[in-house]
Design goal:
This protein is of the alpha/beta class and about 450 residues long. Helix content is about 40%, strand content about 15%. The strands form four sheets. It has a seven-stranded mixed β-sheet, sandwiched between helices. It binds pyridoxal-5'-phosphate. Pyridoxal-5'-phosphate binds next to α5 and α12. Pathway: Amino-acid biosynthesis; L-tryptophan biosynthesis; L-tryptophan from chorismate: step 5/5.
């Protein structure tokens, strides 16, 4: 009999609630602080940037949040997403481990990002917002938001990190196709951008800078709000649709993962897959290891510190309690643009602090080798960000082989790499190098911080 490769759900299986892990966390996240007074602030401080319902979701203690029918209806364009048993990869690795992956690259923009872009556009529309500004690193978030805004007839303005803007012209055209305006960041369109360009005209930009530009535009233009594609609690909440589907699929396969893995930029696709499984740990006493996978060139979880820091480069956002490399940290120009962010989201940071999750890192060459092994074994060409999760899955599968144990591994294939051929071209041309980031480099960035520290308990 042919072995079933895909574990599929039907549209009626699309969950009708998102899962809010904060309700079950033993230690709740510390409050954000005002950027100037450094006093704790409430949700109202976010009201200028985001519509009311998203602010409510940012701080809600409800365990489950209803997914509006209109959102589920758009989700059904690509959801439920398939789960695959990676028979090809298992064979290539000659491992006794069972490997599964949840494939989020089937969305219109090619990653998990529309899972939150759609509800964010929906709640903005409900609040009468006419224009949304945002930043994009690799172009995945900008594409997702462009798609979502177009659906609700909202104008979309995207500040795209210069490095990606130059590397990925077709990401820009994709956004234009859905009707968005795209600026290379730093840009001449904002005060922040002009200042940074004057100081450093050749900068490749960073997510932190692009965030500062998008926020400046949102706060200085009428009827305009800002949207963030990662890091924040409401973004992670929306992404839990991934893990909620994955649990149904694992049950359908008659299996349950021992290890859950996802690449880590700000934490949203990791949260999306892992939080529903962490719930099983917290309420059912299971012992599923959840591992976040980051680049060695931007190692906030494995080498950063847990303290208050700004979400952007300029220091306009509230101070958040997070694992950070310092808001002035500019990561090496790796192709995995979505992982080039100095900090980790608040919830994930608290979970790591409490040792409820794990983190690991991989260098630039290792992840490309993992990505190519995967593409040849499974067919799908992964996004450079996604290769980090693959590299961790391969590492764990190889451990199984060495130890002669069979574990069940589930990872998030959070996006395809069909727009990332420049990255693969560079790899085949031998241009991908290890980025040596020394502990001194990290210390130098951290020593510039004067934000509040968080004492050990
Ligand atoms: C944005 C993105 C990431 C990183 O962001 P998270 O919020 O950590 O998920 C990773 N992979 C892909 C494909 C992305 O688009």
């Amino acid at each position: 009999m042919m072995k079933e490769r895909k574990i599929l759900l039907s549209e009626s299986d699309i969950p009708d609630k998102w899962y809010n892990i904060v309700a079950d966390m033993p230690n709740k996240p510390l409050p954000p602080l005002h950027p100037v007074t450094r006093e704790p602030i409430g949700p109202e401080a976010l009201g200028g940037l985001f519509p009311e319902e998203l602010v409510r979701q940012e701080v809600t203690m409800d365990r489950w949040v209803d997914i509006p029918d209109e959102v589920r209806n758009i989700y059904s364009i690509w959801r439920p997403t398939p789960m695959y048993r990676a028979y090809g990869l298992e064979k290539a690795l000659d491992t006794p481990a069972k490997i599964y992956y949840k494939y989020e690259g089937v969305s219109p923009s090619g990653s998990h990002k529309p899972n939150t872009a759609v509800p964010q556009a929906y709640y903005n529309k409900q609040a009468g917002v006419k224009r949304i500004t945002t930043e994009t690193g690799a172009g995945q978030w900008g594409s997702a938001l462009s798609f979502a805004c177009q659906h609700f007839d909202i104008e979309c303005e995207v500040y795209m990190v210069r490095l990606s803007y130059d590397h990925k012209p077709y990401r820009k055209i994709m956004m234009n196709t859905w009707g968005a305006k795209v600026f290379p960041s730093p840009s001449e369109a904002t005060e922040v951008g002009r200042k940074i360009l004057a100081e450093n005209p050749n900068t490749t930009g960073s997510l932190g800078i692009a965030i500062s530009e998008a926020i400046e535009r949102a706060t200085s233009t009428p009827n305009t709000k800002y949207a963030l594609g990662s890091v924040l609690n409401h973004v992670k909440l929306h992404q839990t649709i991934i893990g909620l589907e994955a649990i149904k699929q694992m049950e359908k396969a008659g299996d349950m993962p021992d290890i859950v893995i996802a690449p880590f930029g700000g934490g949203s696709n990791f949260a999306g897959l892992a939080f529903p499984f962490l719930r099983l740990n917290m309420v059912e006493g299971r012992n599923i290891r959840c591992i976040a996978s980051e680049p060695t060139s931007c190692p906030k979880l494995t080498k950063g510190v847990f303290r208050y820091d700004f979400g952007d480069t300029v220091g306009m956002t509230p101070l958040l309690p997070m694992y950070t490399l310092g808001h002035n940290f500019v990561p090496a120009p790796i192709h995995a643009g979505g992982l080039r962010y100095h900090g980790a989201g608040v919830i994930v940071s608290q979970l790591l602090r409490d040792q409820l999750i794990e983190a690991t890192s991989h260098d630039n060459l290792e992840v490309f080798e993992a990505g190519i092994t995967f593409a040849r074994a499974e067919g799908i060409i992964p996004a450079p960000e996604a290769t980090h999760g693959i590299a961790t899955a391969i590492r764990e599968a190889q451990k199984c082989k060495e130890e002669g144990t069979s574990k069940t591994i589930l990872f998030n294939l959070c996006g395809h790499g069909n727009f990332d051929m420049k990255a693969y071209e560079d790899y085949f041309a031998g241009k991908i190098v290890k980025h040596e980031l020394t502990d001194e480099d990290i210390q130098k960035s951290l020593s510039q911080l004067d934000t509040p520290i968080i004492p050990d308990r």
